[in-house]
Structures are given as structure tokens and as C-alpha cells.
Design goal:
Layout: H1 12-15, H2 19-40, H3 42-51, H4 72-78, E1 96-101, E2 111-115, H5 116-132, E3 140-143, H6 156-162, E4 165-167, H7 174-184, E5 188-191, H8 193-205, H9 210-213, E6 218-221, H10 230-240, E7 243-248, E8 258-259, E9 267-269, E10 274-279, E11 293-299, E12 310-319, E13 331-337, E14 342-344, E15 347-349, H11 351-360, E16 364-375, E17 378-387, H12 395-410, E18 416-421, E19 436-438
Parallel strand pairs: 3-4, 3-5, 5-6, 6-7, 16-19, 17-18
Antiparallel strand pairs: 1-2, 7-8, 8-9, 9-13, 10-11, 11-12, 12-13, 14-15, 16-17
């Protein structure tokens, strides 16, 4: 199928469906997938029966609220039980053509299986996101993501299907990746936000000006929140002279489930594949669209391992109003991970709040580390930063400025701000950066 490169949509009919028609399609798919899961996945048969619900109970989209939640623990507990794929799988192993795994950063790595149809639809969605940010067949694309079992690795196929010239970069050392960028002059790259910023800094320090010496026009970032933080996105754009777009994916579903458009007002989620709910993190109560809570996803078309009411652990909101770009699929706004949120003086604090402040401050590198600890049976936090080598201010002056900025933005000041010289923090990584260290001994329930 040939596409008009001047058309802003990959699939205009799908992307601009009136809300009523989109929800009609969602309901048809929801009825089918809930029935399929019940009849083919041992876990769903057991859990639905225990909850006293049947697939026939789905009459409207809201009826999904009658069904029980699952989460990462459900995946870990059922993985390998009864079969290699486990009790959540709804197809035999011979129907599965690909599996990815999670990083296991919060527990045992979990598998995500795909049938051929699942995988093809996954890559068509990736093509849609690439097209949405302006990638076209005449682009050269470097896929600088980890291919080692992770679900983001195969996303490069979506760019190939679009027709772009693709370079499977993977996790090359910085020096080698800069060589690739300088030699092959790619126009688009995808990596993590922290690494996009660090790579630009390394280029400058090695005598390469990303704006003048390289040809990157668009940078896709994912895996961390930075791409949806205005200050971080601007910092990356200022170094590269390129447009930055945030993508969001889950190993539990597929590579990028949501992506920014040119409006950069949240990330359009593939609502033809995912039904989104928002719930109160304490009570599980259903919240209205626009309210902030934990995002719950139900896969509508993935048959290898359907996810019915999967609690993502991500805190955010969904906006179902039509975007200025013309797309009607809802936009999610992610604030952070439930596991990362901490409370100081009755204020909910996300690391993304702190990052937004740090990236806006002059005279510091933008690198940071957060330490959470307890004092007198209450939560406290400290922030470590790096001062630019040409910053004439004392460490005490820099610390005071950052502390005041954090107090003004977040509402609670840090217990301390520690100032290091440029390069003094061990936070730079060619993958995801580790920026939060929890030193608490007490257990806190969020």
C-alpha cells in the first residue's frame, strides 16, 4: 500500500475516528478478547469464576469494571505454571513467534509472548508512531535501543515497514555511535532521554557540534519520563537542534503503546489496541477521564497473552478530547511510577518533579541524584547535583538556589543539596540512568 508522504496520518480513517465509532470498535474487540481469555487462559477462567463474572457480562465498555485486576505479581506467579508460557497465556506455544522479557528491575523478569498476528499489528502501530512524528521513507534512522530480549528492540521493523533506511545500532558505545551519526548522517534516532542528553554533551566535549556536524532532525526518547518533562525535552533540543518526541511502551503489551504528535500535549495511546482506565491508587475506585491516578490497561487485540485490567503502576491521566493535530485517540500524561513516588510533609513527590526543576537551573550540568531517607520517623529527601566548571558561584550559593527552586516548585525543600564538580556523579549511563536511591529502613504504604 503506497502512502502520500504529505499526508500527516499513517491510517487517517483509524486515527481520526469519531469518538463514538472508536468506542463502538473497542466494545466489539473487548467482548471478543474477554471471551477468548476466559475460554483459553486457565488463570482468567479461574479468576472470573471466583469473582462471579462471565464474558457475557460485557454489555458496555464500563462493564469491564466488574472484572478483577491483575498486576506484575500475577504475571510472575502464573509464569511457567502448567506450561512454559504459563496460565495467563491463551494460545499454545506453537502459535507464538516471539517473546520479549521485562528488565526485572522490580522483580522476576516476565515474558511477553506474541502470535504472528499480534506481532504484525504491533509493528504496524510502531510504523504509525514513526509516521506521526514525521518520519518518511527518505529518512535514515538509527535504532539505538537494547535488542537483548527487550520489547523495544524489534520496533525498528516498524521503521523499515514505513520505508526508512534503518541502522540497527543497539547499545553501541558512545564513541562508536557518534562515529555512526557523523559517517552515515542519519536524520532520526531513538534512545533514552538521559542518554540523548549525555550523548550530546559527549559530542560537544569531543569537538563535535551536534547542530552543525551531525544531521539529526528528530529524536525519539522512551524508557524514562524525561521526554514528557518540558525542561528536559528543551535541554535535549537545545543541544541537538532537533525536535524531541516522547514514546511510551510496556514490555507487558508492546514496544511503544503511545507517542507524541506535533502538538506535544501528551502521548496519543493506541486505543484500537488498549482500553484505558484510571483508578485511585489507594482504593481502586474508578476515576473520571482527566483525573490523576494509576493507569489500568486492557489489551483489546493481543491474543497470545491477553491482559484484562492490568495495573501498570504508572501514575497519570488520560485526555479523551480531540487533539489539535486532528487525532481522536486519547492522550496519556504520565507523572511517574507509583513505586517511585514518595511523600514528604504530606506532599506527593515524583522524581520527575525534581528533574523538571534541575533541568531549568543555570550553572549546573543537569545531572542529579535523589536520596530518600527517614529522620525522626518521617520521609526526607536530598538532591545531589553537578556544578558547571565555569560557574563562578560557590557551592553553598548553588545549593541555596537549587533548594529554593525545589521548595517553590514542589512545596517541600530538600533536607540538603550536595554540589559535585562536573562529572562527579556516577549517573551517566548508555541505557536508563539510576537516579533514585531509597535509603529508608521503614516500610511506607503509598
Amino acid at each position: 500500500m503506497s502512502r502520500d508522504i504529505n499526508n500527516k496520518f499513517w491510517d487517517e480513517e483509524l486515527e481520526t475516528l469519531p469518538r463514538e465509532e472508536l468506542e463502538k470498535r473497542q466494545l466489539a474487540d473487548l467482548k471478543e478478547i474477554v471471551k477468548f481469555a476466559y475460554e483459553n487462559a486457565p488463570y482468567y477462567k479461574r479468576s472470573f469464576d471466583e469473582a462471579g463474572v462471565k464474558p457475557e457480562d460485557i454489555k458496555t465498555l464500563k462493564d469491564i469494571q466488574k472484572f478483577p485486576f491483575i498486576n506484575k505479581k500475577t504475571q510472575r506467579d502464573t509464569q511457567g505454571v502448567g506450561s512454559f508460557l504459563g496460565e495467563l497465556a491463551a494460545v499454545p506455544e506453537e502459535d507464538v513467534v516471539f517473546i520479549s522479557t521485562s528488565s526485572g528491575s522490580t522483580g522476576v523478569p516476565t515474558m511477553s509472548p506474541f502470535t504472528k498476528k499480534d506481532f504484525d499489528e504491533f509493528q504496524d502501530t510502531e510504523s504509525r508512531w514513526f509516521w506521526q512524528i514525521g518520519m518518511r521513507p527518505n529518512d535514515r534512522y538509527v535504532h539505538a535501543l537494547n535488542f537483548s530480549l527487550y520489547v523495544g528492540g524489534p520496533d525498528v521493523i516498524g521503521a523499515q515497514n514505513l520505508g526508512a533506511l534503518c541502522i540497527w545500532g543497539g547499545t553501541l558505545p558512545s564513541e562508536r555511535l557518534l562515529f555512526v551519526l557523523k559517517t552515515y548522517k542519519p536524520t532520526v534516532i531513538w534512545t533514552s532521554p538521559s542518554y540523548a542528553w549525555q550523548l550530546g554533551e559527549k559530542a560537544l566535549k569531543s569537538g563535535i557540534d551536534p547542530k552543525k556536524d551531525l544531521n539529526i532532525k528528530k529524536i525519539i526518547v522512551a524508557g524514562e519520563l524525561g521526554g514528557s518533562i518540558d525542561a528536559t525535552r528543551k535541554a535535549i533540543e537545545d543541544i541537538w537542534g532537533a525536535e524531541v518526541y516522547d514514546f511510551y511502551g510496556l514490555s507487558d503489551i508492546f514496544g511503544a503503546c503511545a507517542a507524541m504528535c506535533e502538538a506535544k500535549d501528551g502521548l496519543h495511546i493506541a486505543e484500537n489496541h488498549i482500553l484505558v482506565e484510571t483508578i485511585d491508587i489507594h482504593t481502586g475506585e474508578i476515576l473520571e477521564p482527566g483525573q490523576v491516578g494509576e493507569l489500568v490497561f486492557t489489551t483489546l487485540r493481543k491474543h497470545a497473552r491477553p491482559l484484562i485490567r492490568f495495573r501498570t503502576g504508572d501514575i497519570g491521566r488520560i485526555d479523551n478530547t480531540k487533539c489539535s493535530c486532528g487525532r481522536t485517540h486519547g492522550r496519556i500524561h504520565i507523572l511517574g511510577r507509583k513505586d517511585d513516588m514518595f511523600i514528604v510533609s504530606a506532599v506527593n513527590v515524583f522524581p520527575s518533579d525534581i528533574e523538571a526543576v534541575i533541568r531549568e537551573q543555570d550553572g549546573i550540568t543537569g545531572e542529579y541524584l535523589i536520596r530518600i531517607f527517614e529522620r525522626d520517623f518521617t520521609n526526607k529527601y536530598a538532591v545531589e547535583i553537578e556544578k558547571n566548571t565555569d560557574n563562578p558561584k560557590t557551592d553553598e550559593e548553588v545549593a541555596a538556589e537549587v533548594s529554593a527552586a525545589l521548595k517553590a516548585r514542589i512545596g517541600v525543600k530538600p533536607a540538603r543539596v550536595v554540589v559535585h564538580p562536573d562529572g562527579g556523579l556516577d549517573t551517566r549511563s548508555e541505557h536508563k540512568s539510576k537516579r533514585v536511591i531509597d535509603e529508608r529502613n521503614l516500610e511506607y504504604v503509598i
